[in-house]
Specification:
Elements: H1 16-26, E1 33-37, E2 40-45, E3 48-54, E4 57-61, H2 64-73, E5 92-94, H3 97-100, H4 103-119
Antiparallel strand pairs: 1-2, 2-3, 3-4, 4-5
């Protein structure tokens, strides 16, 4: 029996305001490298992604403990980052809007995300094969 492929969801561009917020927040993290993943800006440390944008949301990679804390802290709960329905990315959550509105809170959570990514084994640099 042939398998049917699910259609790829339509992705929208990140709003300019969200991109500016992301870029400004990362100015406090000069050790982070930035590059695009699937057309969206993301930040890495030791080759491990720790934050990025997806459509109109920012996501963050956190330890189990910090992920539980941010999800509990948000008044309506913080969803896991799920770029495609039914396919959540382990270790990632969406950054709550109240955090995005507070430079102090955003910096604190980005620091937690970066520290967690730094604790992971460094990713080897991929080389292009000819």
């Amino acid at each position: 029996m042939p398998t049917t492929k699910k259609p790829m969801p339509k992705f929208t561009k990140a709003p300019a305001e969200t991109v500016r917020l992301f870029e400004n927040a990362l100015k406090d993290f000069p050790m982070a490298t930035q590059r695009k993943m699937f057309g969206y800006p993301c930040a890495f440390v030791n080759g491990n992604m720790f934050t990025g944008l997806f459509q109109d949301e920012m996501f963050l990679r956190l330890s189990d403990e910090d992920r539980a804390a941010i999800r509990k802290d948000a008044s309506r709960g913080t969803p896991l980052f799920e770029p495609m329905p039914g396919r959540p990315m382990r270790q990632y959550v969406l950054v709550p809007h109240y955090v995005l509105k507070s430079p102090r809170l955003l910096r604190a959570w980005l620091t937690k995300g970066m520290e967690y990514a730094k604790s992971l084994p460094p990713k080897k640099q991929r080389t292009k094969k000819d």
